[in-house]
């Protein structure tokens, strides 16, 4: 690597999101609740995740929808990632690794999947599909099924079984 390439890489670091520092090394009582870095999932995705994740999004091997917020599954997965990140960032030892291995990697694999992920009908360049994927087909079960103790933890279910 020559000096120009190194300089270019160092200059590019300014564009990367900077994770906030973990808890103060002063110890503290530990009773203070840390405030979240991001106010909502959109801020987390736009200000942290998007600048952090670089992938070749061609729609064939990996895909993404720029209007990710129109996909319920994406909102749920990205919210789970954000909340886990907010919690795990406070662990200076294993927090970052735990977040990547147990949260980011599995969720991003599903989100980026062009065949079965929530963005399968969308395009990273053309955007949200006017014909999104259908939700899972479901039918309602006989309500008596949920009365068994294997499927319910409510006292009402136990009472109905006793009758």
Name a few traits of the molecule.
163 residues; extended; mainly alpha
Explain what you see:
The protein is mainly α. It has five helices and no strands. It has helices at 3-12, 41-52, 72-88, 95-112, 155-162. Helix 3 (72-88) runs antiparallel to helix 4. The longest helix is centred in the middle third of the chain and has 18 residues, at 95-112.
Fold topology:
Blueprint: H1 3-12, H2 41-52, H3 72-88, H4 95-112, H5 155-162
Helix pairs in contact: 3-4
- Shape descriptor reads extended
- Tally of strands: 0
**What's the tally of helices?**
5
**What oligomeric state do these chains adopt?**
single chain
Task: Give the biggest sheet.
Answer: none
Low-confidence stretches: 22-29
Q: Helix/strand-derived class? A: mainly alpha
Which H/E pattern describes the elements?
A: HHHHH
Any idea what the radius of gyration is?
22 Å
- In percent, how much strand structure appears in the residues? under 5%
Distance between the termini: 78 Å
Helix content: 25-40%
Mean pLDDT over all positions: 84
């Amino acid at each position: 690597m020559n000096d120009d390439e190194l300089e270019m890489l160092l200059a590019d670091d300014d564009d990367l999101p900077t994770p906030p520092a973990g808890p103060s090394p002063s110890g503290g009582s530990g009773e203070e609740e840390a405030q979240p870095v991001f106010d909502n999932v959109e801020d987390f995705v736009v200000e942290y995740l998007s600048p952090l994740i670089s992938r070749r999004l061609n729609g064939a091997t990996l895909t993404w929808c720029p209007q990710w917020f129109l996909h319920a599954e994406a909102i749920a997965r990205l919210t789970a990632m954000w909340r886990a990140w907010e919690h795990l960032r406070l662990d200076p030892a294993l927090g970052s690794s735990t977040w990547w291995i147990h949260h980011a990697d599995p969720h991003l694999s599903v989100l980026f999947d062009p065949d079965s992920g929530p963005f399968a009908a969308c395009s990273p360049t053309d955007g949200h599909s006017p014909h999104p994927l259908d939700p899972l087909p479901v039918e309602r079960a006989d309500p008596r099924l949920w009365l068994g103790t294997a499927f319910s933890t409510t006292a009402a279910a136990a009472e109905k079984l006793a009758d």
